[in-house]
Each structure stands twice: as C-alpha cells, then as structure tokens.
Amino acid sequence: MLLKTACVCVRAPRLQQRAFSCGVAMAKSKFEYVRNFETDDTCLKNCYIVVRLDGRNFHKFSEQHGFLKPNDKRALGLMARSAESVMDNMEDVCVAYGQSDEFSFVFKRSTNLFKRRASKLMTHVTSQFSSSFVFYWAEYFTEQPLLYPPSFDGRVVLYPSNRNLRDYLSWRQADCHINNLYNTVFWALVQKGGLSTSQAEERLRGTVAGDKNEMLFSEFNINYNSEPQQYRKGTTLIWNMAEEVVTKKVKPANENEKEVHVTRTRRKIAAHHCDIIGEQFWEEHSGVLESD
Amino acid sequence: MLLKTACVCVRAPRLQQRAFSCGVAMAKSKFEYVRNFETDDTCLKNCYIVVRLDGRNFHKFSEQHGFLKPNDKRALGLMARSAESVMDNMEDVCVAYGQSDEFSFVFKRSTNLFKRRASKLMTHVTSQFSSSFVFYWAEYFTEQPLLYPPSFDGRVVLYPSNRNLRDYLSWRQADCHINNLYNTVFWALVQKGGLSTSQAEERLRGTVAGDKNEMLFSEFNINYNSEPQQYRKGTTLIWNMAEEVVTKKVKPANENEKEVHVTRTRRKIAAHHCDIIGEQFWEEHSGVLESD
Amino acid sequence: MLLKTACVCVRAPRLQQRAFSCGVAMAKSKFEYVRNFETDDTCLKNCYIVVRLDGRNFHKFSEQHGFLKPNDKRALGLMARSAESVMDNMEDVCVAYGQSDEFSFVFKRSTNLFKRRASKLMTHVTSQFSSSFVFYWAEYFTEQPLLYPPSFDGRVVLYPSNRNLRDYLSWRQADCHINNLYNTVFWALVQKGGLSTSQAEERLRGTVAGDKNEMLFSEFNINYNSEPQQYRKGTTLIWNMAEEVVTKKVKPANENEKEVHVTRTRRKIAAHHCDIIGEQFWEEHSGVLESD
Amino acid sequence: MLLKTACVCVRAPRLQQRAFSCGVAMAKSKFEYVRNFETDDTCLKNCYIVVRLDGRNFHKFSEQHGFLKPNDKRALGLMARSAESVMDNMEDVCVAYGQSDEFSFVFKRSTNLFKRRASKLMTHVTSQFSSSFVFYWAEYFTEQPLLYPPSFDGRVVLYPSNRNLRDYLSWRQADCHINNLYNTVFWALVQKGGLSTSQAEERLRGTVAGDKNEMLFSEFNINYNSEPQQYRKGTTLIWNMAEEVVTKKVKPANENEKEVHVTRTRRKIAAHHCDIIGEQFWEEHSGVLESD
C-alpha cells in the first residue's frame, strides 16, 4: 500500500506529495516498536571488563604480506600502535596487553563508559583498532602494501577480583611464552637447520620447554633468554603521568602581559616488555589496578 | 614468587632455564581457569540477526573531511563499498541497508555462522567495515586525505518474524526519508537562501513534511521527489544470481585438449535505491527472506 | 563503626537514639547502590515464552509416597490441579501441557506480564505450582500424608514461531508416549510377569515401539491404544469461553425490584487428553495461538 | 497427518499400531531440535549469587489471614522455618537474611551447584521455600487455616566482592529498620492512640527517625530499642558446626559387641537477630564469607 502511494507520488501534484511525506513520517512511528527488541547487555558492576581482539585468518594474512618468522617487528609495532589508538580514545582502559595477533584491553572496574554496555565497548574497541591498523599500516610496512582490509574479532570477559584479572593477564603472557619458544625453535630448524616445516613439526613433537631451550642452545647457539623481551614477554601498555613544562601568556591586573612556565602532568601511554606474571611490575605500577 | 624465578632466569645457567620454562608452561594451566569466565551469548535460533553500525562522532568527522551537504556522494559510495566488503566475507548476510552514517546487516534466520555468537558476529562485521572504510577511502575521496582513523559502534538485535524484520528495515528507511527531507530544505535555506544555520533551524521549527516540500518547491524550485533516489531511499544490498560464461580447458580421453564454454551462476551483490517499505521490492526479490 | 554506635544505642538516652536511627536511615541510601547490580532479563518480544517445571528427585519422592505404577491417577490429578492454579493466577498462559512430573506453561507471544522479565515469570510459576501442590495434596492423596515439602525446578525457553512452539509441544507429547509405553510394559513384566526390575530392564533392552506393543498384547492381553488417553497423551490445559446464566436483582426507576437472568461469558480452564501433534486439535481451538 | 495416523490407530489392528508407535518415536527426534532454543544463563564465576524472594500480594494475604500488626511472630517464624528448609536442601547457601515477607539466600562465591545456572538456582530456592511455607503453615498458625496457596517471586543478583555483598545485606537490614520503626509507630497510633490509618499516615508524614522514636517514647512509653531484636534486626541464618555425641555399636574381632560413644561435628543452622551492618558479627563468624 505504502509502495503504491510512493510510486504515485513520483508523478504526483504537490498536494499529494504532502500526503505522501506525512505518510512516511507517520509510518516511522508505526515501525518504531521494533526498537524494543534491543536487549540490555550492561556489564556487571565492579568487575574488570576485558575486551580481547584476535586477528581473523592471520596465518594466511601474514604469509600474503611477507611477515618475517618467528616474529615480525613491523607487525608487532603496528599492533601496539593500533592499541595505543584505542587507549587514546578510551581513557578508562587501565592496561592493555598484546602478543602475536591478539590484544586485550582492560577497562577499570569502576568505568561507566557507554554505561558499561558490552556491545558498545567491544565494537568500539574493535572498530578503532581495525581502522587504525589500516591507517598506520604504511608507517610500519614501508615496502609492503596492504593487499586487502584485515578483520579482527572481539569478545568481552568480566573479572570480579584483582586476582582473577592478574591471572587472566598471566594466562596470556604464559601463552606468549609457550608459543614464542615453540616458534623460535621451529623457525630455527627450518631457516637454519634446513628442515621442511613438517620435519620441524616432527622434531618438536613431544618436547617440553627444557628440550626446546636445549635444542636452541646446542644446535643454534641461541640462548632463548637473550631473545628480545618484546618477543618473549609481549607488549604491556599502561598510562604514565608525564610532566611537561608549557609556556603560557598571562596578563595580571595592572601589569603587562608576560610569559610564565607552567608544569602540568599529562597522561601518556608507556609500553613495557617485561614480566607481568610476578609481583614486581604491579608493585612498581600500583596505580594501575583498583583495590578489590 | 614466579617473578623471582623469572628474574633469576634471565641470568641463569641452562639447567635453571629449563626449570623456568617448565614453570611458565605449568603456570599456564594454573591460569587457564580464567577461561571459564567467558559467557555464552548465542543468539536465539530461528530469528533474524541484525547488526547495525553507526559512525561515532561523524558530525565532526564529516566537517573535518569536507563532506558536501546535504549529501556527499563520495561518502555514501564509500559506506556502500565497505558494506559490500562485509557481505563478501559473510555470505549469510541476506540483505543490508544503509543511509547516512549507519548500515544494518541482516543475517538469515537459519544462519549458523560463528555458532550464532552475538559478540563474534557484531565485532567481525564492525571490524571488516572499519578496516574497509580506511582501505577504500582514497578510491572515493581522491582529493581529501583521511586525517585519522574513524570508529563505528555496533549492536545486535534479533527479530523473530518476517513482519518484524520488514518493519525494522521500514523504520530505518522512514528515518532516512525524514532526515533527508529536513536536510535538503535546511541546506537549501543556508546555501541558496543565505540564512545562517540557526536561522534555518528557526524557519523549520514546527513544520511538517508537507510544509517542507512546499518550501522546497516554491522557494527553490526543487521537486523533492526528483532528488536522487540514493539520497531519498538509502542503499539496499542483496545477493543476485548472475550468470557468467567462463572458458575452461578440458581434455577428454583419446582426444586433444580443447576449450569449452561453461555457464555458471555466481552470487553477486546488487545495490538498490528504491522503496523497501511496500510490497513490491519483496515480491520482486522473494528469495531474500525465508518464510516464517 | 556503625556497629559500635548500634551497641551503644541499646543502652543510650533518647537523644542518642535519634542519632542512631538517622544513621541507619542514611546508611540505607549509602548501601542502595547495590541495586544496580541487578541485570535485565527481559524476554525477546513477539516470542512465545515457555516455562517448564520438573519435579526434583521425584523418583524417590514417588516411591516414598507410594505412587502406583506405571501411572498414579492421584498424582496426575494433583499436577493438573496445581497447573490450573498457575493459569488462574496468570491469564496470559494460553496453553499448558503436562506429563509425568513435568508441566510446561506457554505465555502468549504478546504478553507483557511482569514486563516479560524471565526471572519473575519462571519464579512466579514455580512458586504458585509448588505451594498449590502442597495445598491440594490432601484432596488427591486422601490416605497418604505428604512426608516433606517437594521441590520443582523451572526454566524459560523462547520460541519465535508457531511452528517452533508446536514442535516444542509435540516433543513433550512424543516424550510422554515413549516413556509411557516403556513404563506400561516394564510394570506389566514386573507386576504381572513376576520379573525383577532388572530382569524387566533386560527384556526391554533394544526393543522398539512395535516390539513393546506386541509384548503387551501377546503376553498380557493389553491393547496399548486402549490404555487411558490421560496416560498416553498427557494433559493439555486451555482456556474455554463458557457461558453462564446468572441471576441479578435490578430496580428500574418507578418499578419494583426484580430479578433478571443475565448471560455472561467467562474464561474457564478445560483439560484435554488428546493428540496435540497433529493439526486437528489446533484447528478446533484456533484461538489458542496467535498468528506469526 | 500424524494426527490422522493417531486417530486411526485407536481402532487399528496391531500391525498398524507398530507403525504408529514408531512414528511417534521417530517424530520425537524430529522435534528435538527445539532443545537448542534454550539459552545458557550461567552466573559469572567467583561472585556471590544472591537469590531474593518476595511475597506476592502479601499485604492482602496478611490481612486475609489475620496477621498481627506491626509484627506477627508466627509469620516470621514460618518464614524462617521455610528458609531453613531451603538451606537444608542447598548446603552452598552460606548465609540467609530475612525480614517482613522477603528472604535472601547467599550462595558462596565458589559454589558450583546446578553448574551455577541462574534459572535452576532461583527456581529451586523459590519452589522449596513455597512448598515449605504451606507444609509448615499449621505448625505456626495453629488456629488460622491457610485459605489459598501463596506465591513468592524470586530474582538473582551477583556481587563480585565481599564489600558489595556486605553492603547488600546492610541494605536489607537498614530497610528492615526503617520499615519496622515506621510500622511500630503507625500501629501504636492506630491501636493505642485511636487514630484511623489515614490519620496515622498523616501524623507520620515528613517525620524523621528521631521524631518517631520520640513519639513512641513520649506518647506510648515505648523505648524502640527495647523492642524485640527479631523485629528490629530481622533474621540471619548461618551454618554452625555443632558437636554431637552419638552411641554406636561395634564388634571388635574376638570380643563381644559393645557400645561406644563417638563425637562427630555436624553442620546445623543457627538463627541470629543481631546487627549485621557492623564488623562484629562478621568477625565472630569469620568463616561465613570467603576472602576476595
């Protein structure tokens, strides 16, 4: 019915147009009931809200874009740069941790950003990260053009206590360690040892961490613990209070305008490549987490 | 405790490294319980799943990037191109509708993509759309560089019946109409009528659709219904079955290799700028929706 | 702190009491933030809301209360009576279906009872059913006292279409059939055939429905299809419009008071023990379900 | 279709019965897909799970059953008895608190009862409470028969920290205090002061706690703080370890059977009517809550 009206309208005299336009306007309110199908997904109060992103099909993506193995410094830099862009836009992220093609963003437990709506939080993080990844690509991959737009998926997880949150971050860092140790040996066997990838896989089957350290040292003279911390520990981003001196012009009453130097503190993002499983990091940056 | 071990390890002889590495590996399983804090957000079966994206702070974004008013053909083209990129990656999107800085993606009610997990669906759509928006920017804004990475937020809404889904799409198209009519008059008053933006707002206060049509016609000789359909109706994307003839080389037994022409049907995305409130569109494309 | 005040207060002169009382009152508002930890569990609009109850540990309960096997008419009657009590209190239940120790209540898809909050709907149904089960016990179990308060658990499931809802009810009725056929043979073997329960189980292992019908007929001369419909089909409760004639006293102006007979329609609950898998029941009671 | 088969079956020879029965059995698996419409409602790990029950329409219920005002000792006793029945059936309830017609049950944060499924937890609590309320009615209301089955609704709320949980319980106890003080004055004005209920309401409008204490003391010679603690503080139920000495018969080898006394500890529910806002109660019963 509405359609016919609409069709008529295209050729209609002005009086009928009015009717048509009103019709659509009125129709809008008739349709607006569909709004009530949205459901509330507010996150439980007083819990840390973690948004974790993972690259989709990044195995293939990394091959197509010539990522160096086992670690590509450009890719890790771009990931961290994109994560910074997320934090810059959402100051309630108190800590972020990334490794490989994943990044986790921790919103402080008292945040009220987007009224704690899970869908808003995770889509905004994912969107900002994804657009930044493309936007900053050329800064990191100066020789390698981006072939197609990549995609990340995201999820939200809540943690009620500081212990739970720290265990979450420890879980991700332990995962980083395990994968990176494996990859370091694997690619040494392939790149320096001349094995095929399936031969390398075979060699590593059933080995424990100690065996892998041993193989690296005895066969390739690599001390795993001397590998760059960025690869072994991942990237932890937190806010630092940095002091800056800025020059301001002021004009006191009955005086000439003059310049004064004002010290102000500004939040800046700092990247760390250190252990976050133990106590030391958290003692040194005791302001990052709120108390239970 | 773990930290001390870790710290020691950095300077440790190889035997201790082994212990350390094992420690982290074992630690991982100790931390893995945090996985169980993830909650299931599977969407109710047999409902349409709609993911709607909205540009964040696009009022400011459009000003900073010199969008033409009331409609910028480049921006609308880029939005549609990004939406196509989403559909190409997720074939279970049966229809998508966009207008202004928003786009809605409708997953067919029987989809099992990502096991219907809401967070996966909405973040993947948002990510693909956002990275595509940056990736294809220069194709549409040839003169205007992108100044910073933009962001979109997303949400998921379920619709149990075809009527509900059609009403949702009608709601968005009625919204397009109302806003576009307003903007068309508003910017005519400003750009051609020489009014300030606040004067134009004042003129339009309390007018109904008919008044606006009248103003456009009598003052600016614009027949609103002759304005481009793309502006008045938004963009609807659906899958079309397109036939293509491809040439293949075959080699029958006991014969020489030869070329044959094979007709194959391929799904292609088609854009429409027409009314989707009435019956006609849905009758002409009856395969888009499944029956209740 | 508050505690000390409170303790002092017990022995305190009146002036201090005032302070104390104010303290608690003010404290209340200090504590009230905990309200915001409640989450919204509104059911998706335009879906049927099914609340299904199951008896907890009813195997043991039925033994302790001497339920007759395979079916206890008193127990089935009490279940239906309790279900009626639920429907009487919640008129938006359009149909209820029960068998064995379970009962399902279907709220019409347009219901707005308790603002469609899942927790309110399921707990109110469960509560009303449970208290009714105890309240009406003695009407059905005239010789057997209730030994302890029984418990039922509940759940909420949404169905978007009439087909889905009908399939849900069919699922429950098919379950009734399968269990009842099994139980009928099982208890015939035990009660009439003199087998132990484990021997009866052994006899029935691997048999299909046809075998069981055969055993009943050839060994016990029981035609399964002549067994009471209540046992084979379960109990379906729907609303009937019943006409009643009531006598009212009226006093017209300038006349003496007189009695008149008024016909009024009242909703009454009707119990059916028939097939609800096929079309017939739904055609005969076409008002029970709303259209999609 | 199936229906017709079914109808035929009633009068059918045995061979057809077999077909029919198979039909229903097979149909069951055809319908079983409806199971997948159930959604997961697992409660977030490491949070206290609170189930709160409220009497429905208890204002009317209490009038119809002649509850004494402002407090009916029988009703409070019955509420506590029903709550005990809940705790006896669910040992993971670490503390319960009740006042007026409400009762809250706190499941310990580490509970895995019903796999932490919210619907199971709240319906089981509600059901057990409701059936117990009817079952034990006559023990408390010896002269007043129960006129109809009452109903309670329930809800689930999660609290991530001990502070949040304690604030929840404080909120309920502060509510108890405020209501009970009001009711004590209100009913003194009505029962002893001879005011109508609306006059009493009028007198109390705008008064603060101190005023109410004053009125009680000066007009009715009631020291509010001497009122029974049960009324002023509500009822808190926790588990106590009680030692019991039991007599057992044992028969050592080569000896005659003899009786020995064995001491065993058993969990028993203890009721308290004291302040739970301050520290003292929690210090004295430090095992009730787990650490954060």
From TrEMBL, chains A, B, C, D:
Domain Thg1 C-terminal: 163-278
MF terms in GO: GTP binding; magnesium ion binding; tRNA guanylyltransferase activity
Cofactor note: Binds 2 magnesium ions per subunit.
Protein name: tRNA(His) guanylyltransferase
Binding of Mg(2+) 2, residues: D54, D101
EC class of the enzyme, as a word: transferase
Transferase found in the keyword field: yes
Domain tRNAHis guanylyltransferase catalytic: 31-160
Name of a matching Pfam family: Thg1C
Keyword tags: GTP-binding, Magnesium, Metal-binding, Nucleotide-binding, Nucleotidyltransferase, Transferase, tRNA processing
Cofactor(s) listed in the protein's UniProt record: Mg(2+)
UniProt-listed GO biological process terms: tRNA modification
